[in-house]
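Comment thread on ticket #2218

A.B. wrote:
> Attaching the input chain for the structure job we discussed in standup.
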Amino acid sequence: MPNEYIEKLDQVYRIKGTRVALDSIIYKFQQGRSPEAIQDAFPALSLSQVYAAIAYYLDHQAELDAYLAHNEATEAEFSQELVRLFPKGAALKE
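C.D. wrote:
> Ran it. Output below, let me know if you need it in another format.
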């Protein structure tokens, strides 16, 4: 899906030319934030980049929702593994 504003590198969607992940924009959009408020949260982005990211999400919503769900599941698995490896009762001794 070539796009002027969005790129996918190493399985991560980003705003082209930045380090801002598309996920960040999508989550704020889903929370009801306006494009202007999202742009305020990411000053490295222009307002047109934010609008383009939202449009891209809306045009590819099923695919991106699956991508987000996969990332959330992977993060949950990682968190569970950390808890297993470092139980709450284990403290570093000084």
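A.B. wrote:
> Thanks. Noting for the ticket: The two ends are 53 Å apart (CA to CA).
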